[in-house]
């Protein structure tokens, strides 16, 4: 087994809160500089930047997990990842269908643009991407797993936008592939206050909104190679694959 | 005041947990953050919220709340209603928004 450095939570310039420097080219460059082996692209309620970044990253031998950070109707942030572009497109349609039509005010929330390799703007997303979609966390989880995706509630230790802040605690029958904690805590610190979660699998990620934050926090994955299937196996802890955080 | 009294006086719909309508109410708490309710609501209060996830019932049961009132015409999700029936903690529904409903509830409970 080899050890891979995995940071599954990154915002691009498409996220209203993502810095303008977070272009696909810059993101790949920074991930390479930081020695990241697998990077998750997880813009708020949109997957539109992930395929281009995957294409660019392939040249640098960096694996991209394509997905989004979805806000459920309870305002819980959840990381969702998919193996193929076909599945990503199906999921994007689901997001488009359920995102409320509240116009983005770029002065207040920032720009939501899709760019190309040359950093030319291809498209500006009209609806505010940080709204909650009109789907419960249970409905979202079912949709993600229907598409054989990975479902990971984000920064569960945070006092806003997290499953614990919004729902009080993690429903025992919610099928999660892992729980993400932020760089502001450690697994042992978190478990001290949340003993009932000791049997869960934890990842830690950067949640980078600025270029310098990419890869400053990561999770070690022990796997044979870097791809979606191996990531899935490591999260499930099967056939010798496993994950490890502080 | 009993849960059934506020059902009648505020024109609430009883979605589930009917066998708990005789419970006495000792006040109320309005919040949509479940972690906040977990930390701050007291036993025998009526909880006003727009959240419909089954965790609302787990919290109501843990905190021994008298009833839950959903606002804006929301109804509980099926598994929440089921637990409400099992535990006899009523889930009620109002067409009004939290501000109006809480105001009326406060007035009613202050008279006592």
Automatic annotation (TrEMBL), chain A:
<dbReference type="InterPro" id="IPR004013">
    <property type="entry name" value="PHP_dom"/>
</dbReference>
<dbReference type="InterPro" id="IPR016195">
    <property type="entry name" value="Pol/histidinol_Pase-like"/>
</dbReference>
<dbReference type="Pfam" id="PF02811">
    <property type="entry name" value="PHP"/>
</dbReference>
<feature type="domain" description="Polymerase/histidinol phosphatase N-terminal">
    <location>
        <begin position="6"/>
        <end position="74"/>
    </location>
</feature>
<dbReference type="InterPro" id="IPR052018">
    <property type="entry name" value="PHP_domain"/>
</dbReference>
<dbReference type="InterPro" id="IPR003141">
    <property type="entry name" value="Pol/His_phosphatase_N"/>
</dbReference>
<protein>
    <submittedName>
        <fullName>PHP domain-containing protein</fullName>
    </submittedName>
</protein>
UniProtKB/TrEMBL annotation, chain B:
<feature type="domain" description="DRTGG">
    <location>
        <begin position="5"/>
        <end position="105"/>
    </location>
</feature>
<comment type="subunit">
    <text>Homohexamer.</text>
</comment>
<protein>
    <submittedName>
        <fullName>Serine kinase</fullName>
    </submittedName>
</protein>
<dbReference type="InterPro" id="IPR010766">
    <property type="entry name" value="DRTGG"/>
</dbReference>
<dbReference type="InterPro" id="IPR028979">
    <property type="entry name" value="Ser_kin/Pase_Hpr-like_N_sf"/>
</dbReference>
<dbReference type="Pfam" id="PF07085">
    <property type="entry name" value="DRTGG"/>
</dbReference>
<dbReference type="GO" id="GO:0016301">
    <property type="term" value="F:kinase activity"/>
</dbReference>
<keyword id="KW-0418">Kinase</keyword>
<keyword id="KW-0808">Transferase</keyword>
């Amino acid at each position: 087994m080899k050890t891979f450095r995995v940071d599954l939570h990154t915002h691009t310039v498409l996220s209203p809160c993502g810095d303008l420097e977070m272009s696909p080219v810059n993101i790949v460059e920074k991930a390479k500089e930081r020695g990241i082996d697998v990077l998750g692209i997880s813009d708020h309620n949109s997957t539109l930047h992930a395929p281009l970044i995957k294409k660019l990253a392939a040249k640098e031998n960096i694996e991209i997990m394509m997905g989004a950070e979805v806000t459920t109707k309870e305002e819980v942030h959840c990381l969702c990842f998919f193996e193929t572009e076909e599945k990503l497109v199906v999921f994007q349609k689901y997001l488009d269908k359920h995102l409320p039509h509240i116009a983005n005010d770029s002065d207040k929330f920032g720009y939501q643009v899709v760019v190309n390799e040359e950093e030319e703007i291809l498209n500006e997303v009209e609806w505010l991407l940080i709204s909650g979609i009109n789907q419960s966390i249970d409905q979202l989880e079912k949709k993600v797993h229907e598409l054989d995706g990975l479902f990971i509630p984000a920064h569960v230790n945070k006092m806003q936008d997290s499953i614990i802040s919004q729902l009080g605690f993690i429903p025992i029958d919610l099928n999660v592939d892992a729980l993400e904690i932020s760089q502001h805590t450690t697994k042992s610190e978190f478990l001290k206050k949340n003993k009932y979660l000791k049997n869960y699998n934890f990842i830690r990620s950067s949640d980078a909104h600025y270029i310098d934050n990419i890869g400053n926090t990561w999770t070690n994955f022990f796997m044979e190679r870097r791809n979606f299937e191996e990531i899935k196996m490591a999260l499930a802890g099967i056939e010798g694959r496993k994950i490890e955080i502080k | 005041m009993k849960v059934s009294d506020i059902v009648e006086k505020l024109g609430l719909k009883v979605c589930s947990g009917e066998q708990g309508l005789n419970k006495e109410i000792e006040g109320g708490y309005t919040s949509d953050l479940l972690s906040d309710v977990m930390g701050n609501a007291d036993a025998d209060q009526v909880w006003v919220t727009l959240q419909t996830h089954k965790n609302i019932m787990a919290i109501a049961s843990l905190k021994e709340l008298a009833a839950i009132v959903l606002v804006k015409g929301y109804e509980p999700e099926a598994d929440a209603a089921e637990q409400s029936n099992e535990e006899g903690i009523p889930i009620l529904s109002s067409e009004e928004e939290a501000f109006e409903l809480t105001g009326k509830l406060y007035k009613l409970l202050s008279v006592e």
